Amino acid sequence: MNVVDAPGKITAGRPLKPFGIVVHHTASNRNADPDNVVAMCVRGVNKVPGPLYNYLIKRDGTIVKLTASNVKANHAGRGLQSVLNRMQHNNPALGDAAGPGKISANSRLIGVSIINDGLGEDVPEAQMDALIDVCAFLCDGHKWNPDCAVIGHKEWTSRKVDPSFSMPELRLMVHRRMITSVPTMTLPKEPEDGLVPFPGTLRKGSRSQAVVHVQRVVGALADGIYGRGTLAKVKQWQRAKGLVADGVVGPKTWAAMQIRRQEVVQPAFY
Q1: Integer Cα distance of 135 and 50 in angstroms
Q2: Going from the N-terminus, what domains does the chain have, and what CATH number goes with each?
Q3: Has residue 184 got a pLDDT over 60?
């Protein structure tokens, strides 16, 4: 593995006593300088203080340690107690979360993220290989069973859709990496219809590049912050399209917006 320390790596903070791993993608702009993404993940963003993950994996397969091994990161947000219980009692993951959840468990979960826009971007082979490596390394070191200890953010809470690839496949690859070095995995492809895939539900309080795309469609200020102005514009747009005007961008509203890859302008990281 090619592992490096992040500039400004966090070496002190609230303690981490983990019994599992949560896999993420950053949802950052695909054209952003990866070193800027690393810096953002160390310092934090908006109302979430850094570090945002414990490990961050660049597209070239470089694994960046954002924290010391015993320092927690603010990565998972609120999730399901039932998922945490299954991990803690060494029971296999059940798949995508059935609800949003109400508990926080960052002190018990290691956050591992790949740099990826979360909007249909391919995952390079080197990056996926490094993700498998770091998960296998952690499972070996802690004597964890990947079937129980490695989950996706989407398996922790229904509020999230990351990562974009199959978690059962990833867990299988981690198993194989723990005993052999020749795994294979089918990586996700760019959408054939050219549409940007649904990035997860967006509502008042959401902050992401996906919000920028919504704001451009509805005519709101494209600042990436889903505030009152965006809420009003989304409701107006939904009414005009014959949709339920609840101000929430769910799968139906996103599909109606027909946001195409070539229309997505990404000048800088957000």
Answers
A1: 22
A2: 3-177 (3.40.80.10), 192-270 (1.10.101.10)
A3: no
